Amino acid sequence: MKEFNTALAAHAGFLLGVGLLTRDPELSNSNDDRRQQQQRNSSGPLCNMPPWQAFKYLSKRHGLTSIALLLGCACAHRGTMSSSVSKILSLHIPTLLPPGSSELMLLSYGTQAAAMLGLGLLFMRSQNRRMVEVMLHELESIKWDARDTSARLDGADPAESTSECYSLASGFALGLTVLGCGQSTRTLADLRLLDTLSEFISGQRAGPPGPHVNSQTGSSHDATLEMLGGLSISARSESVSDIGAIAAIGLVFLGTNYAPAAQRLALPKSPAQLREADPFLMLWKSLMRSLIMLDAVQSTPAWVESTIPRACASSERGTQFPDLFRIRLHIIAASCMAIALKHAGTEDPRAHSTVLSYFDEIEQVASKPSLGYESSLTRSAAQSCLDVMCVATALVMAGSGDIPTMARLRALHGVSASRSYGNHMASHMALGILFLGGGARFTLSHSLESIALLLIAFFPRFPQQYSDNREHLQAWRHLWALCVVPRCLVVRDVSTGRMCRDAEVLLVEHAPDGGERVTRVVSPVPFPDMANVRTVCVSAPGFMPLRLDVMSGSYTRRLVCKRRVLYMQPLDDTPKRGLATLTEYMQWLATTKAGVDSMCEQLVQSDDPAPSTPVDCASVIRAVEQLRICARAARALATARKSSDSHAGGCWAESTFLAWLDIRQRVLLLGRRDECRRVLVRYWTGSQLPDIASSDSAVFYAVISLLYSVLDLPAPTDAMTIAKQVPVTQLVDYVLE
């Protein structure tokens, strides 16, 4: 039985992995364009999985497999609002089922939490009102719900998945659905999201939300003094929905700089209130507050100190208020995490130095021996904050393999009795992010979607043991894979595919003061953030210069961001099409030109020439297609050499372009004949096409192939679309003039 469960768990990991493969970090700004583009880019095993096969997996009632499939399908279809995936996820949300049917499912909070977060991914930034109402209802009702899942059918579900996990999933899902929209959600204005979520945080409601919700309250959420995950020192919050509601506010107003929303997450000011507060709740509020005011986040120690309340700012190690010192450690960890999320993958030196300085400070506290009860609590809090600092410093230097960061993480790698499962998870995840893709190949995006996913993946409360899913489902730790983007820009020779090691890349970026900032780098190089880049210019000895306008939303920008490979045209070798000398190239030009002349003469000899012709039409057309590429290169070279005194390569360029003009004029004269016009009309309309075996077929398709290889003619479908506005004969006259 153990081997069977192990095999199922391994297959569950495979399902989640293939679901995380589908990603497209560079999307347009419009929600509709983003959704259409994601639907076009949805490709992968889980994107094409039929519903019956998904239900076959779910019918096994294996918790890990169900969680992996639900999350994998949601990740593969994120932002698309796919109806088929929505139905599968809705089966695991009791609120979306008919009355009385939820008792038949007997699902644990872990499976429900995976389905709820999957709905958030599926409806990401859609502002779907129905989903928002469901998530709000779950956040409200979870405080009063005492459902017993001890008799659940999916017995292999991760243990200890409690209502806190489901509450956090509801908050994350609500935040993803209305991600970064803030007060601009006109269709959701009557829901008063900010006020409603603030009530969930304060816990001031006196009773259950209504008769349609299970109002049984149990004693399982009474305040008890226990350390949750090694991070929370004080009692568990009375309101289970606190952390989920804070997460929802932070994601809904992510990056909006909306001060009233940030004020709802303000920290207590008096020492008495701070001493009674949950340290993790202070960390979580401070982090969400910083992400809301994202533009105000600065990579300096002065900004970090400004986020600490005055009552905690002067608290030092060994004072009479060690609980205030622990609050200070948590707020520092939250501020450093906000800096890391803002500068994820940028290798910003100021952000890196700031995070490392506080990393060393917290590490000193965590490494000191504990001599009493209070010192033990402080050391445990410092160790938990150190986990957050490990992730923060790795996020800034993601994919770089930074040596100072690696040295600090490597020192935490050893086995120690004081280090828990969660401590090792944090340091190991940080090492993986630091060497992402083997170094210099990939990095992490820091768009709003990526910040939200990184926040979910690196939730700052790590588990105590491998089965600990009390507040955060461990399967969510893999969502960082959706934020991976290529980072290394490589310039290659288009003819040989080899790397151009001396290529100089010139980047023109928007400066903060409104001007332009020029950066010169040498390929191969880790490519900087594309958010502010306007133009990319590449130059290399022996190659034609290349200039690309990568304005926001353009196809060129998406292509460069996706491939990160630029191809350059050699000045001499490539236009010769592999010929050894310039003399051979000139002979090839003359042969191609003569072949086109002979082919045109052959086609106009009579209305029905003999099928056996001395000219090989296929070889002539292939030569014409190659010559067209050479003509484009010659024209680009002539433009690049216009302001230069050097005339290297001018001979072949001039000869190539003149030969192309002669061939184009010859083909135009052929196309303007009445016989060729009729052939083109027949091809576009699809009527009276010759039989392949007939003698007229060779001449018909030879004319079509020659016209399309030289002239810029529309495809038959495009031509017939245009023909709905103008007659086909006028369209033929237009394209041949």
Your description of this structure?
This protein is mainly α and 737 residues long. It contains 30 helices and nine strands. The strands form three sheets. Strands 5-4-7-8 form a four-stranded antiparallel beta sheet, with no helix packed on it. A hairpin with a 5-residue loop joins strand 4 and strand 5. Helix 24 (582-603) runs parallel beside helix 26 and helix 25 runs parallel beside helix 28 (696-710). The longest helix has 24 residues, at 373-396. It is elongated, with a radius of gyration of 32 Å. 42% of the residues are buried. Mean pLDDT is 79; it is low at 25-33, 146-160, 203-238, 573-580, 608-613 and 642-649.
User: Into which percent range does the helicity of residues fall?
Assistant: 40-55%
The tally of beta strands, per DSSP, is 9
Q: Major sheet: order of its strands?
A: 5-4-7-8
Query: Treating each run of at least 4 consecutive H or I residues as one helix, how many helices?
Result: 30
- What does the overall shape look like? elongated
> Structural class of the helix and strand makeup?
mainly alpha
- β content, as a range? 5-15%
Mean pLDDT: 79
- Low-confidence regions: 25-33, 146-160, 203-238, 573-580, 608-613, 642-649
Query: Distance between the terminal alpha carbons, to the nearest Å?
Result: 78 Å
Largest sheet: 4 strands, antiparallel
Backbone CA Rg = 32 Å
